[in-house]
Design brief:
Elements lengths: L11 H10 L4 H19 L13 E5 L9 E5 L8 H21 L11 E7 L6 E3 L4 E4 L12 H15 L7 H23 L9 E2 L14 E2 L8 E2 L3 E2 L14 H5 L5 H14 L7 H10 L10 H15 L4 H10 L5
Parallel strand pairs: 1-3, 3-5
Antiparallel strand pairs: 1-2, 4-5, 6-7, 8-9
The chain binds zinc ion.
Amino acid sequence: MSKRNTSGFVPNQLLLDIASLNAGNLSAIETIAATQRIAQAAAKGTVRYKIAKGASERQIYTAGNASRLPGTKARFEGDKATSDNVVNDAYEFHGKMRDFLLQVFKRNSIDGAGMNLIGTVHYGKGYNNAFWNGQQMTYGDGDQQIFATFVLIDVIGHEMFHGVTEHTSGLEYSGESGALNESMSDVFGVCLRQWANGHDVTQDSWLVGPGIFTSKVKGAALRSMTAPGTAYNDPRLGKDPQPDHYSKLYTGSSDNGGVHINSGIPNKAFATFAIAVGGKSWDVALPVWFESNCGANRVGPNADFSDFAKKTVDNCTKMFPQHVAALKSAWNGVGVTV
Ligand SMILES: [Zn+2]
C-alpha cells in the first residue's frame, strides 16, 4: 500500500451514499471517477509542475471548470489580488498554512525544504471535493445543492498536512494508522483556523469543514472533534458515522478500514486535551502532536492508536510534564489506555 493519499477531503463512502440517496446526483459519482483519474495521473507522474526548491512560493491556478491540472496561472507569489475571490481566498489560505508551519514549527513548507504551495481552483463542473495529490492542492466548486465550497482554511490545512505526514511519519493510509493520518490532518486544519483567527480553545467550534455544506443541508460540518458522530444528519447524506470511543471502533473494510470514521476517536482525545490545558491549542497540545508525528521522537508508519497515545505521553513528559495527567485522562476518556 502506498503512503500517498490521493483521496479527497470528502470520503468516497459519503459520495456513494449521496449518489444512492439522491437519484440523479451525478456530481457525486463524477467526483469519485475524477479523483481516481487524478490519483492514477499522480502515480504515473504525468502531471508536471514548476517546483522551485526552497522558494516556498504560492502558485494558484484556475482550471476554469475543466479538468486539466494545473490549469492556467491565476495568482502567483507577490501578484496583486484578482477579481476572482476564490483565487484570492486560496492564495490567502495557502499563505496562512505556510506561515503557520514556519512560525510555530520552524518547518519550511510541506516537505521541510521550501516546496512551492501549488493550488488549482474551479476544478471540474460541480466537482464535490478538494485533495492533495502529492504535488499540489485541487479544489472543486461544489454542486451548490449539497456542497457550497471547498476553499476553506481548515480544509486547506487538512489537505496540506497530508503532505507533511507523507514527508515525516508516513502513516500508512489504512486501518488505525490511516485513521491517525486523517486525524492528524483534522487536528492541524482546525488548529490552523484557530491560529489564523487568534482564537483560544474556548472560542472555536472544533468543527471540521464548517461552511462546506449549503444552507439546505442539515449539518454544521463534515466532522466534529469534540462530539464525533453529531456533525450532520440529513436524509440526503445520512448521519455522521464517527464513533467517539474505542469500544465503538468501526472494523469493516470500507473507507480503507474506516480512516475517516475512526479518526473521530483520536480527534476527540486531542480536543479534550487541548481544552483541558486551556489557552491556545498551538502552545501545548499541538506541539506534542507535531513532535509525535513529525519530530525526532515520532511514531513509525504502522502505528496504531495505542502506539501514538504512548508516544504523545512520552513527548509530553519531556516537553510539558505538568500536563501529562490531562493527556492521559483525554486518551483514557476515548478508551485508549495509556
Ligand atoms: Zn484527509
